[in-house]
Amino acid sequence: MDFSEDTFLRHLAPTSPFPFRIPVERAEGIYIYSSNGRRYTDMISGIGVSNIGHRHPSVVNAIKAQVDKHLHVMVYGEYIQSSSNMLAKKLTSLLPPTLDCVYLVNSGTEANEGALKLSKRLTGRTELVSFRNSYHGSTHGSMSVSGNESKKAAFRPLLPDVRFIAFNNIAELQEITTRTAAVIMETIQGDAGVRIPSKQFMKALRKRCDETGAVLILDEIQCGMGRTGTLFAFEQFDITPDILTIGKAFGGGLPIAAFISGHARMQQLSHDPMLGHITTLGGNPVCCASALSTLEVITTGNLLKDVERKGLLIQSLLAHAKIRAIRRTGLMLAIDFDTEERVQRIVTSALSDGVIGFWFLSHPYSFRLAPPLTITDDEIREACAVILKAIENS
Ligand SMILES: Cc1ncc(COP(=O)(O)O)c(C=O)c1O
């Protein structure tokens, strides 16, 4: 074992100057246990990943069973592997019939890269339309269609021919034209601080894409897998995307993501050029076994049905004069305060009392909560009491 900060800071590349640095010994359910004997309530699910808690027993068993059969045997797309067959069959059975073909990759950003490339291939067009303040990943293509300029400027030149329009603004949909290959949108904007579009907007978006022949990509990497109370958030807007991207919670704690579209569309990836979109470890069998088990857990019993009620419970418990606004869908919450500094104090104070909350990438005035969907009402009450104390003292 090595929980030394020295090793961490010396030999692991950083993403920010201020990492959380919890020395994680193990994790179970909604709790993370540190090597120095502390227990933390994970109210952010490792940023939208542990939707059924950490180390769900069914998922752990499925992983162990697959490990005993085989690990990687071949690059994605060549051999018939039961784990990816079963996962694709189950996943597509839960989706509209036009989303019946799955391309398995390793991370959310790769899912979006695949979706963007497929759109270009399908339309023969190059223009990509995205939304201000969106986040779609950190690789060059996904970053090109992400809306936060402060994170992008240092890495230009990025993809050309990308245009940004205002989120949830019907008038700006006119910017989508017959030149547009794809429109990419988070069904619920996550890192912009939980921005929820209107049903009217989503229907107008679908209509505009149909009129212009632009491919509609919905990115549910953060808001999918039950987070909003339905398996996928788009189900609540009565529209279906042409391509759906998923990741994060999809793998139940292992790295796997996917872009999903119709069978005929996906066939374009096999030719002109052949092998024009490939991945070595995409659809890794252990990750597939974990993802299948996770899907089964999410869609069995009352888990999804209870999401909205639990979200409402958190919202009702977090009543405090210092809160400016709460934006919420299901168990995905952004709690607005007056300053960035206050959010910082709340995050720090809750953490020192054993509750993990977080920030948003592109909205500094907000405190982020997205607990495992498996959290109980009593656990919600306990965590909210700590958060309220942090707010009171901030
Ligand atoms: C909406 C959305 N899309 C894409 C990504 C990128 O996923 P990954 O970090 O797995 O590449 C994220 C990650 O936060 C996300 O929230």
Strand content: 15-25%
Poorly predicted runs of 5 or more residues: none
Q: What is Rg?
A: 21 Å
Q: Topology as H/E string? A: HEEEHHHEHEHHEEHEEEHHHEEHEEH
Question: Mean pLDDT, rounded to whole units?
Answer: 97
The distinct ligands, each listed once, are: pyridoxal-5'-phosphate
What does this structure look like?
- The chain is of the alpha/beta class and 394 residues long.
- Helices cover 35% and strands 16% of the residues.
- It is built from 13 helices and 14 strands.
- The strands form three sheets. Strands 4-10-9-8-7-5-6 form a seven-stranded mixed sheet, with helices on both faces.
- Strand 2 (31-34) and strand 3 form a beta hairpin.
- Helix 4 (82-93) runs parallel beside helix 10 (285-299), helix 11 runs parallel beside helix 13 and helix 12 packs across helix 13.
- The longest helix is centred in the N-terminal third of the chain and has 16 residues, at 108-123.
- Residues 107-109, 112, 135-137, 186, 190-191, 219, 221-222, 247 line the site of pyridoxal-5'-phosphate.
- Pyridoxal-5'-phosphate binds next to helix 5.
Keywords:
394 residues, alpha/beta, seven-stranded mixed β-sheet, four-stranded mixed β-sheet, 14 strands, globular, binds pyridoxal-5'-phosphate
Provide a quick synopsis of the model.
With 394 residues, the chain is an alpha/beta fold. The protein has helices at 5-11, 45-48, 57-67, 82-93, 108-123, 140-144, 149-152, 199-212, 263-267, 285-299, 303-317, 340-352, 377-392, and strands at 24-28, 31-34, 39-42, 101-105, 127-131, 162-165, 180-186, 215-219, 243-246, 257-261, 325-329, 332-336, 355-356, 366-369. The mean pLDDT is 97.
